[in-house]
């Protein structure tokens, strides 16, 4: 059922629809090399095949990981003899330097029009030399309605599909076929074909595909099973942003996807980061409970770990939020990196060695525990940045409000230089 022209491509209408960029490139016969980036089974190879079919150019398919430089040389020789060749290079993110160096002059001459296909983010995983000579287009999972069109075509096409077979596909079976494969049309069509060819006709000579038949024939697509894949990091990002945004149901959804991928390590690491980064001083007991929940999850493992994880995700979603802690340290780091340091004041320097007092180290240090309430006003920052302020407390929870009140009281007292005489010992 591979599309022969752009008109047969299902989905990706933002690229191949009437008036859209790939459609215009084909119509104007002004093809340029491009990279198609998206999940498996969503149409990357189909688009490449359809471009070749629409332009009548020779079409060759190689894999950057498994095919050799010699295979590329064969394609290049063909292009010299017959003109333009469209080369679909699967897993282009795994193209090594030797193959890349061979390809570059052929791309620049236009003899080879490269269509790279990858599931990895090309801005991260593909060499800049290749990126700079290609246009990058995102490919999206197909919608249910788009998948339905493709399945209907497969059932009715008697030349390339299953149209010659007397198939009856139940509605609930079709729904499962379309949803369980999560926008991966290749998996859906493979499952449909397996079901049709492995099911005996009934007494009416009908191949009846029921829900149970489709369930046995379709392997459910596990979301983000590749823990190193770009999409996996997108889910982790969405997980944190959902908690930060206090959307409990969205956070639980992304937690479920990470659990389904079996990535307990990423979940635990990210939850602790979220607790300190996004909840922080607004609700320190919730932060501690997040650490406890992570420890419990690590101790009991999956699937039971989902219970403490769910509890703490819900609490973090519904908790007051504050990022004043991370903002404070990042502000301090920014100043330090910019050279805003200065010399440590003499009274704070180490005085635990003979002769330190001769250097003036520690001589005028005021020991806070010698004063009422164990506090005394004195300068702690270097002279050149003595008025720096990194911490800006918020009022998003009673804990941070209390911290903020204390911070401003001490800050104001420090400015006034108020302190009392030390206790007599």
From TrEMBL:
Q: Which GO terms describe its molecular function?
A: ATP binding; ATP hydrolysis activity; DNA binding; enzyme activator activity; single-stranded DNA helicase activity
Q: Which Gene3D superfamilies match?
A: 1.10.8.60, 1.20.272.10, DNA polymerase III clamp loader subunits, C-terminal domain, P-loop containing nucleotide triphosphate hydrolases
CDD domains linked to this entry? AAA, HLD_clamp_RarA
In terms of InterPro entries, this protein maps to: AAA+_ATPase, AAA_assoc_2, AAA_ATPase_RarA/MGS1/WRNIP1, ATPase_AAA_core, DNA_pol3_clamp-load_cplx_C, MgsA_C, P-loop_NTPase
* Assigned keywords, A-Z: ATP-binding, Nucleotide-binding
| Xref: Pfam families | AAA (PF00004), AAA_assoc_2 (PF16193), MgsA_C (PF12002)
AAA+ ATPase domain sequence ranges: 30-142
One GO-annotated biological process of the protein: DNA-templated DNA replication
Q: Which family does it belong to?
A: Belongs to the AAA ATPase family. RarA/MGS1/WRNIP1 subfamily.
What this protein is called in its record is Replication-associated recombination protein A
Q: Which organism is the protein's source? A: Limosilactobacillus fastidiosus
């Amino acid at each position: 059922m591979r599309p022969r022209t752009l008109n047969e491509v299902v989905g990706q209408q933002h690229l191949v629809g009437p008036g859209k960029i790939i459609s215009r490139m084909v119509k104007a016969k002004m093809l340029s090399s491009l990279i198609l980036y998206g999940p498996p089974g969503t149409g990357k190879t189909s688009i490449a095949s359809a471009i070749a079919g629409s332009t009548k150019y020779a079409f060759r398919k190689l894999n950057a990981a498994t095919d050799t430089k010699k295979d590329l040389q064969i394609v290049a020789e063909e292009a010299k003899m017959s003109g333009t060749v469209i080369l679909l290079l699967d897993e282009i993110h795994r193209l090594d330097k030797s193959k890349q160096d061979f390809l570059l002059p052929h791309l620049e001459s236009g003899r080879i029009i490269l269509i790279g296909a990858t599931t990895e983010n090309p801005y991260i995983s593909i060499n800049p030399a290749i990126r700079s000579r290609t246009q990058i287009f995102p490919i999206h999972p197909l919608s249910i309605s788009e998948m339905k069109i493709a399945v209907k075509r497969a059932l009715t096409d008697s030349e390339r599909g299953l149209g010659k077979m007397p198939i009856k596909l139940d509605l609930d079976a079709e729904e499962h076929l379309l949803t369980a494969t999560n926008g991966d049309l290749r998996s859906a069509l493979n499952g449909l074909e397996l079901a049709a060819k492995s099911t005996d006709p009934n007494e009416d000579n009908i191949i009846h595909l029921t829900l149970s038949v489709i369930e046995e024939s379709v392997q459910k697509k596990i979301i983000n099973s590749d823990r190193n894949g770009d999409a996996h990091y997108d889910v982790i990002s969405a997980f944190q942003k959902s908690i930060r945004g206090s959307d409990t149901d969205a956070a639980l959804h992304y937690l479920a996807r990470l659990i389904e991928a079996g990535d307990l390590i990423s979940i635990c690491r990210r939850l602790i980061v979220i607790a300190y980064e996004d909840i922080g001083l607004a609700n320190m007991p919730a932060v501690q409970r997040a650490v406890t929940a992570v420890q419990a999850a690590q101790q009991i493992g999956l699937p039971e770990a989902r219970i403490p994880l769910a509890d703490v995700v819900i609490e973090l979603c519904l908790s007051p939020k504050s990022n004043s802690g991370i903002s404070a340290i990042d502000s301090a780091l920014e100043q330090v990196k910019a050279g805003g340091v200065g010399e440590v004041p003499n009274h704070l320097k180490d005085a635990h060695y003979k002769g330190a007092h001769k250097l003036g180290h520690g001589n005028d240090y005021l020991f806070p525990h010698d004063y009422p309430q164990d506090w005394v006003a004195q300068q702690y920052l270097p002279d050149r940045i003595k008025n720096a302020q990194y911490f800006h407390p918020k009022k998003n929870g009673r804990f941070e409000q209390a911290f903020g009140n204390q911070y401003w009281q001490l800050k104001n007292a420090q400015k006034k230089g108020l302190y009392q005489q030390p206790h007599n010992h």
